[in-house]
TrEMBL record:
Keywords: Methyltransferase, Transferase
Protein name: TrmH family tRNA/rRNA methyltransferase
Nucleotide-binding recorded as keyword: no
InterPro entries reported for this sequence: Alpha/beta_knot_MTases, Ribosomal_eL30-like_sf, rRNA_Methyltransferase, SpoU_MeTrfase, tRNA_m1G_MTases_N
Leader sequence residues: none
GO biological process: methylation; RNA processing
The organism's taxonomic lineage, starting at the top: Bacteria, Bacillati, Bacillota, Clostridia, Lachnospirales
Entry EC no(s): 2.1.1.-
Gene Ontology MF terms: RNA binding; RNA methyltransferase activity
Domain tRNA/rRNA methyltransferase SpoU type: 121-266
């Protein structure tokens, strides 16, 4: 069902042009909202994970290109199309591989569901940059993490940029937020403990153990906890953890970006 875009003000284009990420998130409150997936690879991974498409926005040349196989599977879903320059003007940003898809969010599982069969998980504390969220998810999926948990201050993994940077791995690795009744860190730490996890705070402290410490790998269940950009983990979070872990560095460098640090931590601590 192809629809040539002739009117920028058409209400069916609002989700692509005039609705913020936060508004999309709350689109159907109290039910889960909407998100925008960008690029055929990300869209395909979302569809394979069971997310339902509402509509597609596709550059003319991609109707017979990267988008073609996806569109064939959903003949009843509206497809809005135009030349690249027009789509950029409509959306306000350069499209990656000429395709967007508005999709319904699925209800989030509980922390208990996410952790039921997990032995290595990542916990993100107030990581606010969508690019960092996406990069962390990509590393978590690639480097042996079984799930990702987020505190309420984190950017949403299904925001367009986060999902794109993750290369769609946000649809492959299980994740959820601590619910609003779970106060972080005290209640969250207790919940992780009840689920059998030892906790490792990634932080630069004099009492830290090296990331290659054998005791870390010997733990049956481990939660790797990473903090917000700039300030890192809250002092209370560090105090509540079983381990404080430091990545050894050289040349006077005292810290890594949280996304880079996550890749090192997941590689080292994801193996047993």
């Amino acid at each position: 069902m192809f629809n040539e875009i002739k009117d920028f003000a058409a209400p069916e284009l609002d989700v692509y042009a005039r609705t913020s990420e936060v508004q999309l998130l709350r689109y159907y409150e109290p039910e889960p909202g909407i998100f925008i997936a960008e690029s055929p690879k990300v869209i395909e991974r979302a569809l394979n994970a069971g997310y339902q498409p509402i509509s597609f926005l596709v550059e003319h040349k991609d109707l017979e290109g990267g988008a073609q196989e996806i569109l064939k599977q959903y003949p009843d879903v509206p497809v809005y199309t135009a030349e690249y320059e027009l789509l950029v003007k409509l959306t306000g940003f350069a499209l990656t591989r000429g395709m967007l898809c508005a999709m319904r969010r699925n209800p989030l599982p509980s922390v208990e569901e996410i952790c039921r069969n997990a032995s290595r998980i990542a916990v993100l504390e107030n990581v606010v940059n969508p690019t960092n969220i996406g990069a962390i998810f990509r590393s978590a999926a690639a480097l042996h993490m079984d799930a990702v948990l987020l505190t309420g201050g984190c950017s949403n993994p299904l925001y367009r940029r986060a999902a794109r940077v993750s290369m769609g791995t946000v649809f492959q690795i299980p994740w959820t937020y601590f619910d609003k009744k779970t106060i972080w860190p005290q209640d969250g730490m207790q919940l992780l403990q009840n689920l059998g996890f030892k906790t490792a705070a990634m932080a630069l402290r004099d009492d830290s153990v090296g990331i290659d410490d054998k005791a870390l790998r010997s733990e049956e269940k481990m939660a790797v906890i990473l903090g917000t950009e700039g300030d890192g983990l809250a002092s209370q979070t560090i105090a509540d953890c079983d381990y404080t872990v430091k990545i050894p560095m050289s040349h006077g460098v005292d810290s890594l970006n949280v996304a880079a640090a996550s890749a090192v931590a997941f590689w080292e601590l994801g193996h047993r």
